Structures are given as C-alpha cells and as structure tokens.
Amino acid sequence: MKLRAGIRVLALAAAALLLAGCTGLPTSGPPQAGLPIGGDIELPDFTPIARDPEPGAGPEAIVAGFLEASMTPANNWEIARKFLTEDFSHDWDPDVGVAIDSSVLDRDFDPSVDADDEKATRAEVKVQLDQIAGVSAEGEYSAGVGTAKATYRLARDPGGEWRISEAKDGITLDIDTFSKVYEKFSLKYFDKTWTHLVPDVRWFPRGTAMATTVARALVSGVPSDWLAPAVQTAFPADVSLVGDAVPIDPAQVASVSLTRTALSTSSTVLARMRTQLEASLAGAGVAEVQFVVDGSPLPADTVAIEPVIVDPGVLVYDGATFGTASAGEITPVPGLTQQIAKISTPIRSIDMSLDARLAAVQLTDGHVWAVSDGAGDQVDGRAGLITPSLDPFGYIWSVPSGEPAQIKAWTPAVVGHQIADAWPEADAISHVRVSADGARVAAIVTSGGQHLLVVAAIIRDDEGLPTALGQETPEIAVLDGPARGLSWVGSDSVAVLSADPDPTLTTYVIGGPWSASPAPTDATALAGARTSTGLRVLSADGAVYAQRGSSWQKAVDDVVVLGTRAGY
Fold first, then answer.
1. Which of 24, 83, 91, 481 could form a disulfide with 500 if both were Cys (CB 3.0 to 4.6 A apart)?
2. What pTM was estimated for this model as a whole?
C-alpha cells in the first residue's frame, strides 16, 4: 500500500474574494437565548455572481476576470465564457476538474503585453498560484500542496477587445470560495455484508438539478479507487438512468426512470437499489425515491441498515464506576460496569460497542482486554500497544506503536487475525480508529519524520472478518506535530486533537476541506460523535468539555477516562 497525496488531472482557472456587508448589533428588545450544548449555526447557501469583462481591459485584467468568473457556474459558466474568443468558448471544458488555491491574494500575474499597448494583437499571461487541493471530473477531492503554473494566450477580437484564445480546461477557485460554488454530497455504497452504507464524498457545482447530478453519479459511476475494495453497489451493470432529469414532487419524492432491464431485477436487489439511492439523494432534499420504467412505477421496498447511536450521552470512568454521565451522576451500563469494576489494574481507555455488550479496555500496563457481561479476557499483551479500536463486527484492533504493519483484529475469544498490507511505508503509528460502518480505518502514522493522517479501506471476507487494507491509502493531511486524539465525526469526517503550538481541534472531511478551532487548555483525550457538536474533550484536570457555539463548556468533572463508542 502506498501513501498517496496529490491531485488528479486538474486545470487552472480561478475565483475572487467575496465582499459581504453586515448589520449593527441590536440595542433594544428582550435578551435572546444562546445555543444549547451541541447547537449548530445554520448559514444560508448562495452562489456568488462574477462580473462581465470590462470594456478596454488589458490582458492581465481579462485573465484575472476569467479566473474570478469561475465562481459562477450558472448556465455552464456563461460569464466565464465571455472572457474567451468565440471559437475557444465552444472548446473550453470547465468540467474536467478544479484547482483549489490558498487565496486570490497570492496569485501572481506576468503579462507579456502592457494594458496600454494598442498595437499588440497577441499576448500571453503567465499565472502562478499556491495550489492546496483539487477536484476531479468525477467530483473527488484530494489534498496536495505546491506551486501551480498556467499560461493563457490572448488575441484581440474584431471589436478590439482582448479575449483568451488558449488555456487549459477546468477552473480554479480559492479555498474560501470553493464551498460557495461547490456542494458536498455523499454517494452511498453498501459494505461487503450489505448491512452498512458507506459514504463516498463528492463535490458538484451548485445548481437547480442536484438530484439529477447525484443520481447519475451513483447509478452510472463507480466508487473512488481507494474505497472500492471495501464497498459494492446494488445497481446491476445493465441498469441505467433514462432521461436527463430526476423530477422531485412537492412531497420530496424523486421519480427515477430506469432502463427496461430493471424489470428483471429481483425484489431484494431493487430494495437495496432504492435504499442506496435514497440515502445518496438525502443531501439533495429527497425524502423518498420511486423507480419508474416506461412511465409506470416499479415497486421497491427498502432494506434495514445497521442502526446508529441516537442519544448516547458521554461515557466516563471516574476510577471506580464506568457509565453514562448526566447531571453529575454516572448511570451504569448493564453488564459492563460491574465487570469493569473488577479490574484491579488502572485503566487507560475504554471503547464500547454500539449495543453496549462489549468493551475494548486498555490498562495502564498497555495490555488490551475484551470485557463483556460476566467475562473479561486479555486479548493482546504485546509491548507498546496504542489505544485499541473496536469495530462494528466485534473485532478489537490493536497495534504496537513502533510496528504499524503488525496490526491485528482480535475476537473476544482471543483469536488474533493479522491485517495484511497495513501501512508498510510507515515507521510508527500513534492512533487508529475504525469507522462505524467497518469499511474504513483512519490512522495517524509517522513516515519520513512527518506525522500523517491517513485513511484506508478495510477488506473483509463474506463473514465480515477483516483480512487486509486497501492498496491505496489517501493522505488526508500532514500534521504539524504529534496528536493527542483521533475520532470519527459522523460517517464522512475525522477529528484530530493536537497541542502544538496551541490546543486545536481540526476536523477533516474524508474527501473535502478541513476546519480548525481552539480546544480546551490541557486537552488530553477526544471522544467522537455523530456531529461535531457532539464531540467531547477531556482535560488534564479531569474535566470533560462540550462545544457550545464557538466555545467550550464544562460538562462533567472528576473523570479519569473519557470513554468512546465503536466507530466514533
């Protein structure tokens, strides 16, 4: 398996800064309640509108305006095409990819002709920018840092105005504008056991027909290369969409027209198809999917998916009792609390299964135990073990920090299974977390002196036994230093707790940008959740903090171990 960073075939173009006004603070009226713990601020979505070419603009201004026009995808980038010659406007393809740079302020323009040169009929403008990521034609986002260069050739049109006659296909957007122009969707695929849905994040230009775009990408497309070994689609190869649109009625029911080959599909496959597409279209405002063949409804049920945690509360261990903390009290977990209380050696970590029947417990001597109602067995006694991770199939993943390739998945019956192809280029590993769907594993490894956040597909057999990691391991980020915590946030993101240079919590979308915020002082541990506001952080003084808006509020005191739930 190779650690992979970099950008697929991308083209350069660009975006511009957005200016926004603000209103004054209210000075009268009743006080308004703030956000509750876990509350989110919802911001409206909008797509910025670029300006048309300025009459008499020189070559540099035309190229800069063209790059700015990348932020307006309406009518197939109609505004951007106004900066091109008539012939080239028909040839230019903006859909081949997106180059994402750090800021429009860091772009450097080098024109071969001055703006006031009235005799020149041809010109060249070289552009250099700080590229940090890219999006492929299929909507796949990948991180990559480096200087990108492009050359734009221009000619005067019959009216004497400069227009671009030659450039690479694709567009460029600065990172701040990117999320205003492109929207994140999660294509859902089944795991190999047909019991979990796994997200494959894609980015598409905002528009009025997003359901059509997403449906076409799922039904006619394929999973990302790195994820493909762990997932499968319910849609047969001979079934495809019919027509150019997926209409949605006022009840948010999407009518999806399929080819006649769908008529011979079994009821089980149809149910999986509907479940998969319905989940993928949820982000496009679709509540239900109805299949149609030749204008007539094609009945399809849905299949049951493994449930996720609903309102679990925070898991803590105060040195005597393990359970769910609320209002200053710890509510025991039936079966587990009593068994964990029997452990005499101090405890370092507790990872509990979603059904609360099994826990992976690491002691301060580093050994890892499987604890269930009435049973407690040591599963791994190797030296140097990092915090273990419990997966949804009941396997406990453990690995020595200095031997990343020696990761094993253990059954509660103390049977260890070696995971093949695990980070062979890594020198060390500090954190590992298996996702709630069991199809992916996130890790923080050290390679060549760098601390890398990576993710890999988990290859399992038909019974769910993990056997290997996928050959491609996307590099999500290069961290500034060692991490203090790693967790999953929902199904498509991971959070990293770091301390250098200041306590910081950074959330990375697997296949998308990252965002960072300050973490509590002396933060030592992190527990994941379904949403970013559900994350919990343990400080060195035993306090557990929860986010409230942009700040942290103390939720629990006197905690020795902040418990985690499998998959988060």
1. 481
2. 0.88
Q: Measuring CA to CA, how many Å separate 465 from each of 369, 406, 460?
A: 19, 17, 5
Task: Choose among 76, 64, 21, 68: nearest CA to 49.
Answer: 68
Residue 144 has a pLDDT of 80
In contact, 347 and 384? CB cutoff 8 Å: no
491's tokens: 């199904």
Strand partners, 523: 539
C-beta of residue 437 within 8 angstroms of C-beta of residue 308: no
Taking residue 39's Cβ as centre, other Cβ atoms within 10 Å add up to 13
> What is the reported pLDDT for 19?
24
Q: Are 34 and 59 in contact (CB under 8 A)?
A: no
- Give the separation between CA 354 and CA 360, rounded to whole angstroms: 12
Which amino acid is present at 160?
G
**Nearest-angstrom CA–CA distance, 241 and 216:** 7
CA distance 213 to 204: 8
Q: How many residues does the chain have?
A: 568
For the chain, what is the mean pLDDT? 90
Q: 248-273: per-residue pLDDT in tens? A: 999 999 999 999 999 999 999 999 99
- Report d(CA 112, CA 448) in Å as an integer: 42
pLDDT number for residue 314: 94
Question: Could you tell me if residue 237 is left (phi over 0), alpha (psi between -120 and 50 degrees) or otherwise beta?
Answer: alpha
| Angle, vertex CA 137, rays to CA 132 and CA 143, nearest 5 | 20
Give the full edge-to-edge strand order of the sheet including 551-556.
Answer: 523-527, 536-539, 544-548, 551-556
- At 526 the pLDDT is 97
CB-based contact 372:335 (threshold 8 Å): yes
Question: Residue 557 has which token pair?
Answer: 């005191």
Closest to 433 in 3D by CA, of 479, 489, 480: 489
CB 428 within 8 A of CB 404: yes
**Widest CA span in the chain:** 90
Mean pLDDT of 99-103: 95
CA–CA separation, 490 and 498 (whole Å): 20
∠ CA 125-129-133, rounded to 5°: 135
Position 471 pLDDT exceeds 90: no
Helix (H, G, I), strand (E, B) or coil at 278: helix
Q: Which of 419, 416, 442 is nearest to 431 (CA)?
A: 442
Handedness of CA 238, 241, 243, 249 (dihedral sign): positive
pLDDT at 310: 60
The pLDDT of residue 462 is above 90 = no
Q: In the chain, pLDDT over 90 holds for what percent of residues?
A: 84
